[in-house]
């Protein structure tokens, strides 16, 4: 992996050779229209180059408008979107991709993910993503919310390994086994809801924030990247978006990284991929 040389100028090289920024803006639950346009334009103006959306978020059009109005060359941006559960299956996925591409106003999507491992469908969905990549419609393909057995299934079925697995990952859900599996397979882990959906009033995080002269949010985001995990905190507040980027001018000690890991309770704020009503 490349050096942690800033949120906007570097990041890990994925197994397909594409470089992805360490830090991105997530737009889950951000309203389409002015809210998402303002958030994305603020992030890009601050220096962010990675934006993460999804069909299910219903804000791809606003993200696309913000990209167009940002004035930043397309090749400098890294745009992720996802195919949702109701859109899965081979042909349906190809149609879903085209719908997302048009809403985003893009010729090519940088990273296209399967949003959830929908039983009896995710294998065919993965084959559709492979096709889209071979045809040049997407640069990189990956998955979201996949457990190790889901990953094994599509790898054994197609021989194609996802470059990214985006999962719920934070100090109360540190996913040790999945992280090791992904590292062994050269699959880049990416954290959604890295900031515990705002539940940062944990004494250890407060203490470390004071120790390093940072906020609890910055401590958690730094913890992500020191483990080689890409992180995409969501915010609609420009000051908070800027604050979330202030994680590249300090380093947590090994002891503090382990202490944060010790907070793990296998606690999910989102659905369990193995027990989810798709």
Automatic annotation (TrEMBL):
Ranges of residues in domain NADP-dependent oxidoreductase: 23-264
Site feature: Lowers pKa of active site Tyr: 82
Pfam families in the cross-refs: Aldo_ket_red
PROSITE patterns membership: ALDOKETO_REDUCTASE_1, ALDOKETO_REDUCTASE_2, ALDOKETO_REDUCTASE_3
Active-site residues annotated for this sequence: 57 (proton donor)
Protein name stated in the entry: 2,5-didehydrogluconate reductase
GO molecular function: oxidoreductase activity, acting on the CH-OH group of donors, NAD or NADP as acceptor
Domain of life: Bacteria
InterPro entries hit by this protein: AKR, AKR5G, Aldo/ket_reductase_CS, NAD(P)_OxRdtase_dom_sf, NADP_OxRdtase_dom
Family named by the database record: Belongs to the aldo/keto reductase family.
Entry binding sites for substrate: 115
Keywords associated with the record: NADP, Oxidoreductase
